[in-house]
Amino acid sequence: MSEPQFSAPMETVRKRKLEATQRLLGDTIGMDEDQWRAPSLLPGWTRAHVAVHLARGADALARIVRAAQQGRSEALYPDPKARFNDLERGIERTGLDLQIDLDTSAGELNGILDSVTDWSLPVMIGPNRASIAQVPMARLRELVVHHIDLACGFTVDDIDPVPARWLLQWYVSMGPTTGPRLAIESDSGVSARLGDQGEERRVTGNDAHLWGWLTGRSGPEGLTGADDLRMPLL
Predict the structure, then answer these.
(1) How big is the CA angle at 41 (ends 182 and 103), to the nearest 5 degrees?
(2) Contacts of 152 (CB under 8 A, 6+ apart)
(3) What is the pLDDT of residue 1?
(4) What is the mean pLDDT of residues 152-159?
(5) Which of 11, 93, 211, 222 is the most buried (most CB within 10 A)?
(6) How confident is the model at residue 5 (pLDDT cuts 50, 70, 90)?
């Protein structure tokens, strides 16, 4: 697959990543134990599952950046069984421990990124070839999508216009090859053709609502052409 693309200066993306981190931590700090054990928007996952996933995601990104700096290539998640075990062990912790884990892992990733001198070094982000320069955006995407999944009041309507455009660019640059055939166009000018099934439908709207709809985090409300089509969670 090709490297995901979006247009933004590195320092701006990193600033937005930090802002997204603090906003998420600000929402989770007030959760009590019952709220951590309550369902998230992801089927079968509690909010604790989402928090552990986010923390281990930060660790994984830090690890592949560190490996790239040492001239090695590592998979983001090389051992699916270990990943599952880490998740199940992690959700047994208290809400305070989950909050500390979220904060600490995010800080460690930021520290690793501070040490980068060559942003062109290659990494693999999932199945996609990328460079370290794409890691801050990959993390920003995870923060935003899983902040929504926490079901704590943050929705696509709370995404600022600038990162909303980046998120949509990131999504369409990876070009999903299956699913409904779509021609999307955002108010800011992001356009793409996606999918391979059925008659093509043209869907328009703002960046945040298009991205939220395409990733299954929001419905067709606020879009033109989406009608009653709901997309799966991605």
Answers:
(1) 110
(2) 27, 28, 31, 47
(3) 42
(4) 98
(5) 211
(6) low
Nearest C-alpha neighbor of 8 from the set 173, 143, 149, 125: 173
Give per-residue pLDDT as tens, 71-128. Answer: 999 999 988 898 989 999 999 999 999 999 999 999 999 999 999 999 999 999 988 8
How far is 136 from 109, CA to CA, in rounded Å?
9
pLDDT at 22 over 90: yes
Among residues 182, 212, 211, which one has the least CA distance to residue 199? 182
Q: Are 230 and 220 in contact (CB under 8 A)?
A: yes
Note whether 56 and 102 are within 8 A (CB).
Answer: no
C-beta of residue 18 within 8 angstroms of C-beta of residue 106: no
User: 209: buried, middle or exposed (CB in 10 Å: 19+, 13-18, 0-12)?
Assistant: buried
